[in-house]
Specification:
The chain has 174 residues and is an alpha+beta fold. The protein has one domain: Aminopeptidase (3-Layer(aba) Sandwich). The longest helix is centred in the C-terminal third of the chain and has 19 residues. The structure holds coenzyme A (COA).
Length: 174
């Protein structure tokens, strides 16, 4: 397994294929949207590859406060986000994060990969913290039972409010 933090277009397209295995309609990413978000912040993805194929990915974005607050009220969805709502990481600043998505290819949902993957996610944010980037709160819009289980059991996020088709949960990554 190899973890990458600066995906290529090809990697993003493979991640979108993973979305198609688990999500429908607007919850499936598009290349243009992903490139639009990356134009503001290059540090939003973690991908895991096996034999040069993306088998899992997550994306986590720092949001402007006004958009974060709309999510907290259950009034906003990930697919509505553009580069205007996302912040770059700047040393000394504090951020509210949206855990936008996490997917692992079905055959690797064996309990092993997710443990390694969650550790990589935590390590990334510990490193950012050590560089002076502070994280306030993290939310996720859990749109599947798998997501609800992962974020409540493993990350210990707490329920905030129902969203359109999901549940907003809030917590900490580290
Ligand atoms: C969400 C997703 C990535 C979670 O991966 P997963 O392999 O299914 O992980 P699970 O949360 O079921 O965890 C597997 C097991 O490992 C355990 N585990 C997970 N992380 C752990 C950790 N860091 N330390 C110890 N145990 C851990 C869990 O408790 C669970 O144990 P259980 O099966 O006895 O309950 C995966 O289910 C997926 O890709 N689903 C489709 C996409 C999706 O719904 N994404 C979320 C959208 S909000």
């Amino acid at each position: 397994m190899r973890y990458i933090y600066s995906p290529t277009k090809k990697d993003i397209l493979q991640a979108i294929n993973l979305d198609k295995e688990s999500f429908t309609n607007d919850d499936v990413g598009t290349l243009n949207k992903c490139l639009d978000w990356l134009s503001v912040n290059k540090h939003i993805y973690i991908m895991v590859k096996k034999w040069n194929k993306v088998i899992g990915y997550c994306n986590i974005v720092p949001l402007k406060d006004e958009i974060y607050n709309l999510f907290i009220e259950g009034k906003y969805k990930d697919y509505m986000l553009t580069h205007e709502h996302i912040l770059p990481y700047i040393k000394g600043n504090s951020y509210n994060l949206l855990f936008m998505s996490i997917v692992i290819e079905k055959k690797y949902r064996d309990g092993m990969l997710i443990i390694q993957f969650t550790n990589k996610i935590k390590n990334k944010f510990k490193k950012l913290q050590n560089k002076g980037i502070k994280i306030k709160n993290v939310i996720v819009d859990a749109i599947t039972d798998d997501g609800y289980k992962l974020f409540t059991n493993t990350f210990h996020f707490k329920f905030v409010i129902e969203s359109k088709g999901g549940k907003i949960l809030q917590g900490q990554l580290i």
